[in-house]
Amino acid sequence: MNKLYVFGHSNPDTDSIASSIVFANLQRALGYDATAYKLGETNKETKYALKSFKVEEPQTLSSVDETCDVAMVDNNEFSQSVSGIEKAHIKMVVDHHKIKFETVEPIFYITEPVGCTSTILYKLYRQNDIQIDSQISGLMLSAIISDTLLFKSPTCTDQDKQIAQKLASIAGVDIDSYGKDMLKAGTDISDFTPFQVINIDSKEFSDKNARFEISQVNAVDLDSVFSRQSELEEAINKEIQEKNLDFYMFAATDILNANSKIIAMGNKAKTVEKAFGISLSNNTAMLNNVVSRKKQMLPNILNNLD
Amino acid sequence: MNKLYVFGHSNPDTDSIASSIVFANLQRALGYDATAYKLGETNKETKYALKSFKVEEPQTLSSVDETCDVAMVDNNEFSQSVSGIEKAHIKMVVDHHKIKFETVEPIFYITEPVGCTSTILYKLYRQNDIQIDSQISGLMLSAIISDTLLFKSPTCTDQDKQIAQKLASIAGVDIDSYGKDMLKAGTDISDFTPFQVINIDSKEFSDKNARFEISQVNAVDLDSVFSRQSELEEAINKEIQEKNLDFYMFAATDILNANSKIIAMGNKAKTVEKAFGISLSNNTAMLNNVVSRKKQMLPNILNNLD
Known about the structure:
Two copies of one chain form a homodimer.
Chain A: E1 4-7, H1 14-29, E2 34-38, H2 44-52, E3 59-60, E4 69-73, E5 89-95, E6 100-102, E7 108-111, H3 117-127, H4 134-147, H5 158-171, H6 175-186, H7 194-198, E8 202-206, E9 211-219, H8 222-226, H9 229-243, E10 247-254, E11 259-265, H10 270-276, E12 284-288, H11 293-302
Parallel strand pairs in A: 1-2, 1-4, 2-3, 4-5, 5-7, 9-10
Antiparallel strand pairs in A: 8-9, 10-11, 11-12
Helix pairs in contact in A: 1-3, 1-4, 2-4, 2-6, 3-4, 4-5, 4-6, 10-11
């Protein structure tokens, strides 16, 4: 029997890494020589999940060729996969995305419109009567929490929720507290300098009336971001001076509650107050239901420049 | 919730009809308004299976349109499906053939390299904890027996065999005797005239040395075919005279044992003896391991014409 290479998509998220490990484990239990790989560096959230359940990171795979038997998880498109994928023998696909696929013979291909690949994998374990240990269970749970943003994402289904409950009980964790800790780990910026924090995702804009910058970071715990308010303000002030900005808006977006807490500074910081109908207090304000820079923050500001 | 139209391929076989009924039943158990349809007349084998388990034939579906939610079973190619399929909303696919498929959103799509769609459906019932009654069980068993030729086909897998055993015990039938009876019903020619029997699948060939015809029928019970030998010979003789043939070979092919029993008649019937290294006795002979007209019968005869 040929070795089976199991991997997710490039720029791997927690589902891609976890599902690779979980599916390779299932195939080994079914008698295959299966090994999980990753197609890129694991992010902080995934590292937290792996560490929590004492599972080692898979090796990185740089290419496959015509000698390789392959299982694709969490994706089915060659453009998101490893170099050489078009030459490999794709034996299995487990996915939850749209389909664009063609084979010359029947293969094992499962995709379902659920929030997470691991939700499907849980059912495959059950179908094959393969026991799910606490490590495998913890990884699947982590993947579901990640893909569904702790069940808040519109892609989350009842199946994802129900299976997450079962997995949490096997893994012996409280979904809510573990989930928040894991998502928080993914948004951890504690090892970033204030300058790095405000430049994680920052864009400069200008029109005839003003020159300004909007910076955004994702967060689970807004308090931990704002515990660094004074040093963030120092970095923002430096940017304003160096770039000769009229104002600067830094937004920490709470991915679970869909709100953003901002710091706004500069000569024309009042534009931000007008744009969102809020009053800045100690340079900060909460913007309820505001999460998108492109669709919400920027248009409101552009409409209120003077 | 929209009505779900469930159907297999055109020119339906037992798996296409049975899997449509079985999958629609599963979806109803899961809360969907699902109805099974057929895309053409049911054959004798399928009629036998439906009658055995007291299940009604599905209605025939002639077309679908953009208002229809659809589940395709036992196929995934539009060319084998109903008129209008390209406009319909394909919500689910359960299949065991090669894949050529594209969607704009995630759907429920399962295909596995097993011998029969019903083998996959059994696992879906199990996965969803939906009970399988004796009727549904009997239909799935019939589909597996049909697609795998009672486990003799090279496409048959261990899964097909194991699941067929479980289904037979629920359905309360003996696989071997029920299976042979069903396959026999599919090859039943008792209501055909001798002229119809020899013309079910007959082809005329000629070269400079001879003009001949090879006719083939599938059979489970060769004896029942040859109980009509004298009237078949009468019909064959008429063909020889009317078409001025040098010889005529009629082959009844035993689909379970991969042999053919022939009747060969005409002035140059000795060609057949030479072609297969046999001696005709009472115009008949057994050709062991000969099943294909195109790949075995015709080349052997063409190589021995004189």
